[in-house]
Amino acid sequence: MSVLTIAMPKGRIFEEAYELLIQAGFNLPAEMDMSRKLMLEIPEENIRFILAKPMDVPVYVEHGVADIGIAGKDVLLEQGRTVHELLDLKISTCYIASAGLPNTTMNEIAPRIATKYPEIATKYYKGIGEQVEIIELNGSIELAPMIGLADRIVDIVSTGRTLKENGLVEYEHITDVSSRLIANPVSYRLKGERITDLVRRLKPIVNERVDV
Amino acid sequence: MSMIQMFEKPLGMRDTFPAIYEKLENVRKTGRNYLRAHGYEFIKTPTVEYYDTIGKASAIYDASLFKLVDSQGNTLVLRPDMTTPIARVATSKLLKEKIPLRLAYFANVFRAQETEGGRPAEFDQMGIELIGDASVYADAEVILTAAGLMKEFSVPSFKLTIGHAGILQSILNSYTDTDAQAEELRILLVQKNFVGFEEAVLAFELPTMKTQSLLQFIEEASNFLSLSQIEKYVTKNDALLYMKELEVLLTEAGLTDEIAFDFTLASHMNYYTGMLFEVFAAGSGFPIGNGGRYDGLLHSFGQTVGATGFGLRVDRLLEVLPKEFEQESATLVLFEQGAYTKALTKANALRAQGQRVTLQAKASLTNEAAFTAGFSEVVVVGQED
């Protein structure tokens, strides 16, 4: 049986997902040495974890160097990669929304949108019949409307606190986001049994957690 | 834009160095012999075609087409696949001479350049088209030929996943309330978005029986080892009987371990009307090839005969080939000053025995070790001996 490589985002999502796997009955060490290692071998289960930036997980999975992975729906929507989306893990739930200064309308001639998600923003505004100009930023997006770089921002919102603290209000709810289990199309065929088994074991746990 | 350096090639383009060239040639030769032995005739079409005909009819996404403009202002495409040009040739000419047609190709095809690595804008494809036969035997032949070709290449572990566009459509139609719902679900399956499928099913608020059936379908229908498992979802119809016949034909031909059925398999092109399949192999993160029945494509060229076929991506095939496929011996005859004639005689004698021989003056070499490294045998010819 060949090893199953799982690409995981570093940090909090890793810990939550790791916990889910333990609950699903996978024989994983309770304490994980999370030092600076990028690859973790679990010989007991014939599993290998690779730890990547959240944005990079779909890249590893699409190219097939990881069989499966855990990626945010925001990243999947933004990158549009050819991967199978198998299961909603319902962890790190949040949503993507547009926001801006209160009581403002968008510039009529060339509304400008600052965002980390140019694809999602373009698609959304196209869908509601607005042609907008996108300004791609890498972080602290809230700054853009405050100092007049953009009319609106499109960003992840989890509690809405950051928006509030910076004097911004939410305008439109664009889409819900949570972590998803994704698979490489070839691995899904050639290691199909292991992957479907994993999905079957995770599913009830994921659903139970939410119902509580 | 940074200045283009002298060593650069256009984005997505690759050179083929001797080692890869030989490997490719080997694949071409093996494949060509195999396909010709199965009654397929090779054909070549132009590298460039009209966007309005081939470009639009092709299964390749519009954004993935490599577009150009000709001197008359027409938009052209570098051929994105071979199926569409072959459909053009077949419908306009060849079908008038003979039906059914068995055509094969080995050709380079093109895709729009992409900035991310691992996505060549030009690569080779090998495949067949069986045009003018709408029977189940034609589909069985295509699947068996695809599997046979993979075996001929000694690909160690491969799998063919077979689905049926008609069966999927009838399942989606019978368990939803509107055509729009069925289409939404079909698109989610094209994207392989199983999570989205479940969400959509729940959001439709269908009768409980329908919801349950769809949820169960999505959970298990992507990995059936036998056709009987799909029967509970569909009322007996022609498509199901057709697939049963196909399964029998494949089993009788000895193809069982390498195939699986996936009734969630859907293509973004609606010209796939019947059976469709994908080819996977360990060692490549991307599918090796795909095929299916595409009667709908022929319709767009004004013909109503059936057509089926498959294509393999040779660049991905190379990644999964076993190592022994590429071995070849080569002899080097090095001659010293004044020994040219003697060395030439020696080299020609070896060549007559069928060996690959390189003849090289020793004095011209600046680094003898590096030069001789690639040869399996080195013969030095001096004046004395």
Characterise this structure:
- The complex is a heterodimer of chains A (212) and B (385).
- Chain A is an alpha/beta fold.
- Chain A folds into 2 domains: 4-92 and 178-211, D-Maltodextrin-Binding Protein, domain 2; 94-175, 3-Layer(aba) Sandwich (D-Maltodextrin-Binding Protein, domain 2).
- Helices cover 33% and strands 29% of the residues of chain A.
- Chain A is built from 8 helices and 11 strands.
- Chain A has helices at residues 12-23, 57-62, 73-79, 118-127, 143-146, 161-165, 185-190, 192-211, and strands spanning 4-9, 39-42, 47-52, 68-72, 84-88, 94-100, 112-115, 133-136, 152-157, 169-177, 179-183.
- Chain A has a 6-stranded mixed beta sheet.
- In chain A, β2 and β3 (47-52) form a beta hairpin.
- Chain B has 385 residues and is of the alpha/beta class.
- The longest helix of chain B is centred in the first third of the chain and has 20 residues, at 18-37.
- Chain B is elongated and about 95 Å long.
- The mean pLDDT of chain B is 91.
- The interface between A and B is medium-sized, with 22 and 23 residues.
Topology:
The complex is a heterodimer of chains A (212) and B (385).
Chain A: E1 4-9, H1 12-23, E2 39-42, E3 47-52, H2 57-62, E4 68-72, H3 73-79, E5 84-88, E6 94-100, E7 112-115, H4 118-127, E8 133-136, H5 143-146, E9 152-157, H6 161-165, E10 169-177, E11 179-183, H7 185-190, H8 192-211
Parallel strand pairs in A: 1-3, 1-4, 7-8, 7-9
Antiparallel strand pairs in A: 2-3, 4-11, 5-11, 6-9, 6-10
Chain B: H1 18-37, E1 41-42, E2 48-50, H2 51-57, E3 66-69, E4 75-78, H3 83-92, E5 101-110, E6 122-131, H4 136-152, E7 158-164, H5 165-174, H6 179-190, H7 194-204, H8 208-220, H9 238-252, E8 259-261, E9 275-281, E10 289-293, H10 295-300, E11 307-313, H11 314-320, E12 331-335, H12 340-352, E13 357-361, H13 368-372, E14 377-381
Parallel strand pairs in B: 1-5, 7-8, 12-13, 12-14
Antiparallel strand pairs in B: 2-4, 3-4, 5-6, 6-11, 7-9, 9-10, 10-11
Helix pairs in contact in B: 1-4, 4-9, 5-6, 6-7, 7-8
